[in-house]
Amino acid sequence: MAKYVFLNVPAHGHINPTIAVVRELVARGENVIYYATEEFRVLIESTGATFRGYESKFMHSMGSMISGSGQDLMRRMRGMPARVLEESEATIPQILGQIRAEQPDYILYDMMCLGQDHCPVVEDSRDPVATKLCDEP
After folding, report:
1. What is the pLDDT of residues 56-67, one digit of tens each?
2. Beta sheet of 106-110, edge-to-edge order
3. What structural domains does the chain harbor?
4. DSSP tag of 23
5. What are the contacts of 50-58 at 24+ separation with CB within 8 A?
6. Among candidates 66, 89, 86, which has minimal Cα distance to 78?
7. Has residue 77 got a pLDDT over 80?
8. Cα-atom radius of gyration of the chain, to the nearest Å?
9. How does pLDDT run across 33-53, given as a tens digit for each residue?
10. Cα(82)–Cα(125) distance, rounded to whole angstroms?
């Protein structure tokens, strides 16, 4: 049985598409651990995966960032890369030790999670297979 760790942005549009995959891995007898914020606990645990929570700064500021439209929305969205980095700085210390202890075989992470192409959790782990979860071709 392999051990999978999922890392994701705490937003329905990022977590929901992974749920069927998580459910299938669990059905096949794999050990799946999913790191997310508390609001996703019930959804993740309903798949049979193990939920591990962390506190997010990201979602506290997203509502005001994405509301509105047009030029105002575009101006606010320019701040997204800085918010992703802030989230990384706040989240990594919460989960890095836990992931080290988990010793996963696979780490799957969202393309916006923990700094996009640079994922310190992956780089610091014991050589797991890692891949970004992405809807781009």
Report:
1. 876 555 555 555
2. 50-53, 31-36, 3-7, 106-110, 129-133
3. 3-133 (3.40.50.2000)
4. H
5. 52/95, 52/98, 54/91, 54/94, 54/95, 55/90, 55/91, 55/94, 56/10, 56/87, 56/90, 56/91, 57/86, 57/87, 57/90, 58/9, 58/10, 58/83, 58/84, 58/86, 58/87
6. 66
7. no
8. 15
9. 999 999 999 999 999 999 999
10. 25
What predicted TM-score, i.e. pTM, was given to this entire model? 0.75
At 84, phi and psi to the nearest 5? -65, -40
Judge whether 116 and 133 are in contact, CB under 8 Å: no
3-state secondary structure 57-100: CHHHHHHHHHCCCHHHHHHHHCCHHHHHHHHHHHHHHHHHHHHH
Beta pairing partners, 50? 33
How far from 111 is each of 41, 68, 82, 93, CA to CA, in Å? 21, 25, 15, 19
Tens-place pLDDT, residues 94-128? 888 898 888 898 888 877 665 444 455 555 555 55
